């Protein structure tokens, strides 16, 4: 039925044939639903009514005195559904109208006029579904955008955490390096101190000869050169590898042991090596050696904490099942069974915060498994722990 109630759906009918307009009006009048109807005859009147009425649906004839209904589509389709009506069926016009944004295309006939209320109801329902779908799509796009922003934020946060963890690992490695340098320098510094004291005593007593002075200076220079070479060795050891390359595992083991030999010797820790010197691996030699250094340092510290008698570290290099294998085994009592599954977890440590960061073994596994495509595992064997590096 037709009503003046502005809350009812507002229909704008653009029709210059008054008989057709009356038939469509009658169909809406007989409908059970309420509609607010306004009828205009021209394109210019329709545009004015659009601004005033803000309709919920536009029914427009395709042929109008001052244009055609398709010209109304550009303005109306952004606000509400548009149904084009025409007296003559033209398939191409229908296709063009639908492409231009018309919701429906109706050929006027005696049979269709009574159905106009049903067409209006169907069009309003379809438009409502379209709007709901569009709203859902907009909400989904907003959700997707927010999710993307959240993912970017989370990735940035993870990168910040990774950077902090890497920096923390570097600081721990630097502390280890300083400790090893101290062990490497202790003997030459003692030798230099004895030579300087001897020179002073001989000079004060008047017994210092030219030959003795030159001999002592040569000994001091040898010690200083050794200390300088030690600095170079440590600097090269901690230099970042840029590209993967083939290297001998035995060479990486030798480089690592040169850095900790004084520390191991001072603590009476014997290192035994069973090596196939021809075993090579493709990866980052410095990072590989740093993993080995971390494992050896942990074994050394455990031996000292547990006061192990005759501490030993066995290093074995071999090739098994087409892969390189490096085994580091100690006799320090092993890892408690309840802790063994967690030793590679981030920030897990059995030592106090002043002695361990809990990132050394975590970073070691990342280097071997993520950077080099290998495998780092640990288990208890005999009276100690065994670490296996397979690449």
Radius of gyration: 44 Å
Give the structural class. Answer: alpha/beta
Task: Give, in order, the helices and strands.
Answer: EHEHEEEHEHEHHEHEEHEEHEE
Reported by name, the CATH topology of one domain is Heat Shock Protein 90
* Uncertain stretches of 5 or more adjacent residues: none
The DSSP helix count reads 9
CATH class division of one domain: Alpha Beta
Q: Strand percentage, roughly?
A: 15-25%
- What global shape is seen? rod-shaped
The proportion of residues forming helix, as a percent range, comes to 40-55%
CATH architecture of one domain: 2-Layer Sandwich
Give the strand order, joined by hyphens, for the main sheet.
2-1-3-6-7
Describe this structure in words.
The chain has helices at 18-29, 43-53, 70-76, 91-100, 116-205, 210-237, 249-266, 285-305, 360-371, and strands at 10-14, 36-40, 57-61, 63-64, 67-68, 82-86, 104-107, 245-248, 270-275, 280-283, 312-320, 323-330, 375-381, 384-390. The protein has 391 residues and is an alpha/beta fold. Among the domains are: 10-108, Response regulator (Rossmann fold, 3-Layer(aba) Sandwich); 240-390, 2-Layer Sandwich (Heat Shock Protein 90), CATH 3.30.565. The longest helix has 90 residues, at 116-205. It is rod-shaped and about 135 Å long. The mean pLDDT is 82.
């Amino acid at each position: 039925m037709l009503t003046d109630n502005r809350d009812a759906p507002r229909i704008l009918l653009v029709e210059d044939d008054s008989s057709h307009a009356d038939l469509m009006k009658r169909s809406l009048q007989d409908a059970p639903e309420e509609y607010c109807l306004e009828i205009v005859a021209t394109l210019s009147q329709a545009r004015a009514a659009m601004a005033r009425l803000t309709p919920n649906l536009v029914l427009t004839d395709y042929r109008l005195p001052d244009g055609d209904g398709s010209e109304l589509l550009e303005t109306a389709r952004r606000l509400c559904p548009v149904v084009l009506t025409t007296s003559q069926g033209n398939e191409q016009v229908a296709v063009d109208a639908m492409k231009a944004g018309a919701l429906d295309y109706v050929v006027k006939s005696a049979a269709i006029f009574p159905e106009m209320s049903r067409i209006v109801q169907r069009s309003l329902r379809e438009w409502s579904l379209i709007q709901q779908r569009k709203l859902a799509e907009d909400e989904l796009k907003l959700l997707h955008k927010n999710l993307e922003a959240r993912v970017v934020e989370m990735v940035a946060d993870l990168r910040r955490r990774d950077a902090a963890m890497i920096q923390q690992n570097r600081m721990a490695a630097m502390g280890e390096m300083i400790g090893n340098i101290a062990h490497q320098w202790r003997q030459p510094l003692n030798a230099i101190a004895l030579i300087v004291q001897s020179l002073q005593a001989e000079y004060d007593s008047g017994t210092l000869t030219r030959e003795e002075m030159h001999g002592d200076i040569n000994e001091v220079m040898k010690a200083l050169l050794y200390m300088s070479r030690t600095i170079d060795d440590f600097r090269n050891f901690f230099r970042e590898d840029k590209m993967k390359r083939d290297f001998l595992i035995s060479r990486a083991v030798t480089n690592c042991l040169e850095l900790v030999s004084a520390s191991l010797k001072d603590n009476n820790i014997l290192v035994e090596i069973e090596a196939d010197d021809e075993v090579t691996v493709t990866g980052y030699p410095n990072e590989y050696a740093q993993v080995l250094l971390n494992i050896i340092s942990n074994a050394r510290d455990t031996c000292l904490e547990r006061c192990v008698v005759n501490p030993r570290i066995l290093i074995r290099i071999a090739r098994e099942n087409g892969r390189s294998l490096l085994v580091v085994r100690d006799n320090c009592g092993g890892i408690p069974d309840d802790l063994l599954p967690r030793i590679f977890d981030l920030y897990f440590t059995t030592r106090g915060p002043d002695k361990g960061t809990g990132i050394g073994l975590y970073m070691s596994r990342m280097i071997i498994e993520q950077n080099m495509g290998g495998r780092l595992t640990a288990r208890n064997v005999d009276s100690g722990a065994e670490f296996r590096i397979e690449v």
